[in-house]
Write a structure and sequence with these properties.
By secondary structure, this protein is mainly alpha-helical. The protein is built from 19 helices and 6 strands. The longest helix is centred in the first third of the chain and has 37 residues.
Length: about 425
């Protein structure tokens, strides 16, 4: 399934034309490695000149054969003539299908890694630009303690760095070919043929295949895509929260002529981020289907094939699109420091409550007592609009332990930011 806004480079990897051309490459390399006589070698040279894929003809033949690889071999024989006799010797369909699929997955992984790299570049620039931009940190959606926006974005960058490493590992996991015959036992050809073909394709021979490459490899690949998508969803969800009218600390780019609502002209909705969140759900569902493909009957059955023809193109294309779209959001993200400052002012000095508890505890007051004293004043500030700092400063239980200067020091916000730039720099080293 190819979505509406597919990027052509990734989609091209999953076309019938690319798939059959890759299968032809596998067949020709196998024929070269298998050739032992001058006649065989001449046939391979002839095939190199004459063999060409005709997708329409393959589909036409398949309507009769009900077997795609036989249809492919028939079409090549029609095109290349008797030289096609050297194709598919000692091979089974899964040999060429699975090996070609490995090539497709490796190419797709390379594009996804490139996509993560581009997104990392945009996120790094944003983190550096706002390493010292104060904003309120939140937990459970509630004001916690001040941070900087660059500090938040640095966390996105670190996760993307992990995503790139995971994709590289997943690429290595699926970079295995298999040309070992019907049961995988090399009954009709030597393992040297498999080794030669895999080497030419940049793959490794599957150590112990059955009739197919074990599907735990593909399951790990799709699970990795789902995990990367979940990371993009985390970033997109944060942008959606920060763009809410009540918060409005950042905003997705809104292009000239863009409309937010068919009914309400004022709307500027975070549609790209919402789209990314929705697509992450879809890729997660594909990871479950990939896990279901691991347990096949005996040396193989065909239950995995129909699933993979949907989930592998779909998951790689969707993640490629998500990376591309989120990069555009980050590059054009509107950041509003003045709104961040205004939102921080809403909770005023309450956010310094922990500093007061720590200071009182250092002066010998049991921590739970200190907590209860400070919490009482904080709750009154919340519910009764009683100014927090004057109430604390007037409390005899606090004044008994802390001097006016020490109380004032508890409301100094500089310590909240003192290590933010260091954390940003550390995260962006990757």
């Amino acid at each position: 399934m190819i979505p509406r806004y597919t990027r052509p480079e990734m989609a091209a990897l999953w076309t019938d034309e690319f798939r059959w051309k890759t299968i032809l490459d596998v067949e020709l390399l196998a024929a070269e490695a298998y050739a032992r006589t001058p006649d065989d070698r001449r046939a391979v040279k002839t095939l190199r000149r004459r063999a060409a894929v005709d997708v329409a003809r393959i589909l036409e033949i398949e309507r009769t054969t009900k077997h795609d690889v036989i249809a492919f071999l028939t079409q090549i024989e029609e095109k290349a003539g008797p030289a096609a006799k050297v194709l598919h010797r000692g091979l089974t369909s899964s040999d060429v299908l699975d090996t070609a699929l490995a090539v497709q997955l490796v190419r797709a992984a390379d594009r996804l890694i490139d996509g993560v790299t581009r997104l990392k570049t945009a996120v790094k620039k944003l983190a550096r630009a706002h390493a010292s931009t104060p904003m309120m940190g939140r937990s459970h959606g509630i004001h916690g303690e001040p941070i900087t926006f660059g500090f938040k974005v640095a966390g996105w960058y670190a996760e993307l760095a992990r995503a790139a490493r995971r994709l590289a590992a997943a690429r290595a996991e699926v970079a295995f070919g298999k040309l070992s015959g019907a049961m995988g036992n090399f009954a009709h050809l030597d393992p040297s043929v498999e080794a030669a073909v895999c080497r030419r394709l940049g793959l490794r021979p599957e150590p112990a295949s059955t009739q197919v490459i074990p599907r735990d490899r593909h399951a790990l690949f799709v699970q990795t895509l789902a995990l990367v998508a979940a990371g993009l969803e985390r970033i997109a969800t944060e942008i959606r929260h920060l763009q809410r009218t009540e918060v409005l600390e950042v905003e997705e780019p809104f292009s000239k002529g863009q409309k937010g609502s068919s009914a309400m002209p004022h709307k500027r909705n975070p549609i790209a981020s919402e789209n990314i969140c929705g697509l992450a759900r879809l890729i997660r569902s594909h990871s479950l289907a990939a896990l279901e493909n691991v347990a096949l009957w005996h040396e193989r059955d065909i239950s995995h094939s129909s699933v993979e023809r949907v989930i592998l193109p779909d998951a790689t294309i969707l993640l490629d699109y998500m990376l591309h779209r989120l990069t555009g959001v980050i590059e054009g993200l509107q950041v509003y420091p003045e709104r961040m400052a205004a939102n921080m002012a809403r909770t005023a000095d309450i956010v310094c409550s922990q500093r007061l508890v720590v200071a009182l505890a250092k002066k010998g007051l049991p921590k739970q007592q200190a907590y209860e004293i400070v919490q009482g004043h904080a709750l009154k500030a919340w519910t009764e609009n009683v100014p927090f700092r004057p109430a604390v400063a007037a409390d005899h239980r606090v004044r008994r332990r802390l001097s006016p200067a020490e109380i004032a020091a508890c409301f100094d916000r500089r310590p909240f930011y003192k290590n933010a730039a260091r954390v940003v720099a550390r995260a962006l080293k990757d």
